[in-house]
Design goal:
It is built from 15 helices and 11 strands. The chain is an alpha+beta fold and 421 residues long. It has 2 domains: 8-212, Metalloenzyme, LuxS/M16 peptidase-like (Cytochrome Bc1 Complex, Chain A, domain 1, 2-Layer Sandwich); 236-416, Cytochrome Bc1 Complex, Chain A, domain 1, CATH 3.30.830. Strand 9 (295-300) and strand 10 (308-315) form a beta hairpin. Helix 1 (50-56) crosses helix 7 and helix 9 (263-275) packs across helix 12 (341-358). It is globular, with a radius of gyration of 23 Å.
């Protein structure tokens, strides 16, 4: 039986923790994935990077284990477990053999509930963040991306800021702030767990209850909303990086939320514009035909808030102006003329096929289940995904292009050996 054909079980515990289970007995592996509503959207402006430091330090020591003991407990059986922060959520990922489930669950419960953020490990991680930030500031693609986000989202908006914060904000973070953040935002009613693999559903429900059923909810549940933003006036921002051999371009404006009913239609439109090298106009025309870019693509990045729409390109510095003009032309053409029936069919086949492939791994299936739960798509999302895309018409895609693409409002960010003329 294919991985994604057995039923999904959803169980909500008295403390609000949501559990999703899908059995797959093809082999003896298990994926544990989670989303905890504790991302950088809850950072204060003076402490950007706090949520990310908390997430990264979950495995650096608890009230019951040192980081060495955490590593030994999991790695000695070939398992791994870790966490990473995004703007909205903290992702928890674990991979293990089914025979080691109890061992890994014990560690997971420990790091989620009893992390104690040792001062020595905080200082080590702080300097690691400094190194990351310094490295990113030397990458033209990362710099261009930051410039565009800072142009589109106001300074008080969470999408304006890097999840990791700045060197100045991370320097201000003290251990007490980590403890307080963890106590406030790490709570069972903000956690979704998806367990996929060689497991028995009822046994897993009981094991999670035994481990986490006594995890108490304290205080009001924090709101889980991202503020809306207005379209901003077109801006052109750049950072000269004259020691580089390549320039990177970012062109875009605010996009949509994941709950937007036109999400699927927009996804098809973007696949044709720049979402996949195999069928995308940007790749075929700007790169292959005109030779103006080494790489070029586009993306709508929806989440709880209005994520970014952007087209990205890596180019020879001599081609910056031509590439910008060509990319904007393709966005304008998509808005005015839309797509062909052949392009629609290609995009549908691509998206449906990629989704089916994602469901063939335990981890991929767990990720889809978490997305469905987080955005309220329903347990039948897996079964209806293909029919949703197959039912969309060319007219609907073209209407979405006219509604959601705004080339006249696209801001432009450039990083590399380039100066505005």
């Amino acid at each position: 039986m294919s991985n994604h054909q057995s039923p999904v079980t959803r169980h909500v515990y008295d403390n609000g923790l949501t559990l999703l289970i899908r059995e797959n007995h093809f082999n003896q592996t298990v994926a544990i994935s989670g989303r905890l509503k504790a991302g950088s959207m809850y950072d204060h402006q003076s402490s950007y990077g706090l949520a990310d430091v908390v997430a990264n330090m979950l495995t650096k020591g608890t009230e019951n284990r040192t980081w060495e003991e955490i590593a030994e407990t999991t790695e000695s059986v070939g398992a791994n477990i870790g966490a990473a922060s995004s703007t909205e959520t903290v992702s928890i990922e674990g991979r293990l053999l089914s025979k080691d489930f109890d061992r890994v669950l014990d560690v997971l419960n420990d790091i989620l509930r009893a992390s104690n953020f040792p001062q020595e490990e905080l200082e080590k991680h702080r300097h690691q963040v400094y190194s990351w930030l310094k490295a990113w500031e030397d990458e033209t693609d990362d710099v261009a991306d930051r410039l565009l986000r800072e142009a589109i989202y106001p300074v008080e908006h969470p999408y304006h800021w890097r999840v990791q914060g700045t060197e100045e904000s991370v320097e201000r973070i003290q251990r007490g702030a980590l403890v307080d953040f963890h106590a406030t935002f790490y709570r069972p009613d903000s956690l979704i767990l998806a367990i996929v693999g060689d497991v028995e559903t009822q046994a897993i429900i009981e094991k999670i209850d035994a481990a986490m059923g006594d995890w108490a909810v304290n205080g009001e549940k924090p709101p889980f909303t991202i503020p809306t933003v207005e379209y901003c006036e077109k801006q052109v921002v750049s950072k000269p990086m004259m020691d580089k051999s390549q320039a990177n371009i970012e062109i875009g404006h605010k996009g949509i939320t994941r709950k937007n009913p036109d999400f699927y239609t927009i996804n098809l439109m973007n696949a044709v514009l720049g979402g996949s090298a195999g069928i995308a106009r940007l790749f075929g025309r700007v790169r292959d035909v005109q030779g103006l870019a080494y790489s070029v693509w586009s993306s709508f990045s929806p989440s709880m808030g209005e994520g970014l729409f952007h087209a990205s390109a890596g180019v020879n510095p001599a081609n910056v102006d031509k590439a910008v003009k060509s990319i904007l032309h393709e966005i304008e053409l998509m808005k005015s003329d839309g797509i062909t029936l052949e392009e629609l069919s290609d995009a549908q086949n691509l998206i449906v096929g990629n989704f089916a492939l994602a469901l063939e791994t335990n981890r991929g299936l767990a990720a889809v289940l978490l997305t469905a739960e987080l955005y309220g798509l329903g347990l039948d999302y897996l079964e209806h995904h293909e029919s949703i895309y197959r039912s969309i018409t060319r007219a609907q895609v073209n209407a979405a292009a006219q509604k959601y693409l705004h080339p006249d409002l696209c801001s432009i960010a450039i990083a590399g050996p380039y100066r505005e003329t």
